[in-house]
């Protein structure tokens, strides 16, 4: 958002995401839902990469487009060998979590950062 990745998108690192609002709700549900006792939960919404993040921000916040990498900017993609699988079914079944989309989470985060001039 500040223009640092305009020429090359940095490697993603960890390819999973979750909105902090779901993490907070998961903590509350784990304490309130009796069936959650004795379980561990993988609270994760899905997979993403930094190239996708740039595309979401360009589309949702077009006023930032001149600071963001474009669709031809190299880097930030999934690894060639593929990714690991994730299974968040227990968090949905027992805790009743419904995860926000990557787009919603990313745009809300960006707008929150803009609101504090970060």
Written description of the protein model:
Helix content is about 35%, strand content about 5%. The chain is mostly helical and about 120 residues long. It has one domain (about 15-115). The protein has a two-stranded antiparallel ribbon. α2 (about 50-60) packs across α4.
| SSE series | EHEHHH
C-alpha-based Rg, rounded: 17 Å
| Biggest sheet character | 2 strands, antiparallel
Mean pLDDT across the residues is 95
Shape: globular
Point out poorly predicted stretches.
Answer: none
Total domain modules: 1
Work out the strand percent.
under 5%
* Secondary structure tally, helices: 4
Helix-strand category: mainly alpha
Terminal CA distance = 9 Å
Strand tally is 2
Helix % is 25-40%
Strands ordered across the widest β-sheet: 1-2
Features:
single chain, mainly alpha, 118 residues
Write the layout of secondary structure elements.
Layout: E1 16-17, H1 20-32, E2 46-47, H2 50-60, H3 89-93, H4 102-115
Antiparallel strand pairs: 1-2
Helix pairs in contact: 2-4
